[in-house]
Protein: PLP-dependent aminotransferase family protein
Organism: Alkalicoccobacillus porphyridii
Amino acid sequence: MLWFPIDRHSTTSLVQQVYTNIRTLILSEQLKEHEKLPSTRELAHSIGTSRNTVTDAYEQLILEGYLLVRPRSGTYVAAGVVLKAAETEKRESDLADWLQTEQHDSRQFIDFRASHPAMDHFPRKVWGRLAKEVCYDSADELFGYRTPFGDETLRRVLATYLARTRGVACHPEQIVITAGATQGLALITQLLLKEGEHVAVEDPVTDEMRHIFSNAGANVYPVKADDQGIIPEKLSHHEKPSFVFVIPSHQFPLGAVLPIQRRIQLVEYVRQMNSYIVEDDYDSEFTYEGTAVYSMQGLDSKRVIYVGTFSKILSPALRIGYVILPYQLIDPFKELKWFSDRHTATLEQQIMARFIEEGHLDQHVRRMKRIYEGRRKALVAALKKSFPDLKIIGHAAGMHVVVEWKQLEVDQAFVDHCKQHQVIVYPVEQYALQKGYHTKQMVLGYGSLTEADIRIGVDRLHEAVSIFKQTTAPF
Ligand SMILES: Cc1ncc(COP(=O)(O)O)c(C=O)c1O
């Protein structure tokens, strides 16, 4: 006999109480799949309510799929209504373990991970003030759905900012604000990828970029990069790429600045192949030698799609990036963005617009440039002191350096050995699609490390290398 208590003094209705009790019994598997329930008359009698109360509760449970009626037989618990408890628990504990390991790692290890900005220097005070202002000042419409293009003010100030700092030639209507460069690149791939075509990608490249393209269905075609960046002669002249992906202002990871001759060659290539260049310009505000390198987009705004982000310049937590499109791609891109996530968070965009308009972005970039330059100098000085033979590769910009050993192979054994000395380094070979060209090179990111941590990290690396030399022969 089925029974549960009913509270006549509760503010919860009787129907709701019957419904909740039965639902809980089903979810805790005290009432099992295919089990028959008592008739409405029997249950009403046993719990002391009217038959209508039970009928209403049964009907709600039938509507939601927990119960089903078999004609001339009765009411049963439906199949497939319980999510197995063990699975949920396991997933939760896996996640907890993962989070714990991450926290544990970041306390104990010096992690030379690239592309992580200085989180300790986020301009919290100004951002917080602007956030409050935006929240109080904004018209009611701003709290509704907005256009997929993104906030109008942000696009306007961004167009001016990018023209001034990056030589980008665009009208605000060509800009779409995205959830970081990542979303921009994923949507571009969806938009441009045609059957039978590939995406030409400079090699090496970050594994994340490569995955963005392949997850969107692309066949990735590696195009070798040397100390000047992508080599245009290595592009396919037989098969058309949907687009060519490049980071011309500071190649990742090699740090090359693509010379104008190669830029022109690339533009001529995509014109001839009726294709596009996708330019990722993620960290080139931070240049420590010479002047800032201008974007490729300024060369041909019909063939170059420019992708930018605030992840490095400010913080990846904001998830604000942007894509600058040739006119013919604006409408189809806008549609993809709308059906992907409607639009990027409006209030954050408004805060960003004010942040730029009031001059805080320029100020922040100037300040961060000094900080990153200091970190870079500390890293290079410590490396030169500990390893006089080590070659530093690439343009002095961004938040990482690439170094090349004379003899040492930066393989998994070496990386594991470094971990034992509480220092994490990244082989360039890990980013290479065509293997075997970068085996002696490694990436050292310094963006999120203080100068003191950098020095400790290099000391640990020195210790690790000395022991590695003794244990591996010949060296
Ligand atoms: C080459 C490159 N471009 C862009 C980004 C920025 O991505 P997002 O704007 O989605 O944070 C990254 C992130 O690490 C990157 O490595």
Q: What stands out?
A: The radius of gyration is 29 Å. The chain has three domains: 14-77, 110-118+363-471, 122-362.
